[in-house]
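User: Predict the complex with FDM.
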Amino acid sequence: MGRGALILVEGLDRAGKTTQTSELVTRLRNEGLNVELIKFPDRTTPIGKLINSYLVDKSFELSDESAHLLFSANRWELSRGIKEKLHNGTIVVLDRYVYSGVAYTAAKGLDAQWCLNPDIGLPRPDLTIFLNLNDSQSSRGGFGDERYEVTEFQQQVKLQFEKFFNEPNWNTLVVDGKNIQDVAEEVWPLVQEVLSKDLKQVELF
Ligand code: FDM
Ligand code: MG
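Assistant: Here is the predicted structure with FDM placed in the model:
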């Protein structure tokens, strides 16, 4: 048996990442495959708890740099487990990852290469699906009240994500006006294609 595929679903807040990753995991399990879903930030780890405080409590002060490094550290906390799962033949589906890390901090004005540096060496996805919302206001419900859930900031984040649109293994899917099943039907062939490949060793950022 070959290794499992690393499949990432990225996008802005309210794009439907969490819905689509859970649909995808269900579908893969129905095919009899071993699948694990990991959502970043993982708010349950010690570092994830700090990140959660930072996101929900706007009076919780951290410099932009240190907040950024916590998000990266949260990925490093789980990276060994991700590699082990892939080697054991488990498909790992990620809800956000390195690209969110860079896009959200670079949107604050920090240098994008500086933002990527702490993530260098993390496993690289075999497939990235970016759920693209062209009009974040009209098609979806409103934002919650976490840090970053602000329309103007989301627009800056989107500009940062767009810089990745030519990354290897990247696919942009427009989701405006589509229902859950429509989007799932577009996700599925992309996933099947990567599963049909004989994946060699895990690539790294
Ligand atoms: N976020 C997420 C970052 O700023 N950096 C990161 O590395 C990651 C993974 O955290 F606003 C932001 C994106 C979002 C917030 O994410 C919480 P969820 O998906 O809404 O839980
Ligand atoms: Mg959110």
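The CA atoms of residues 39 and 141 lie 21 Å apart.
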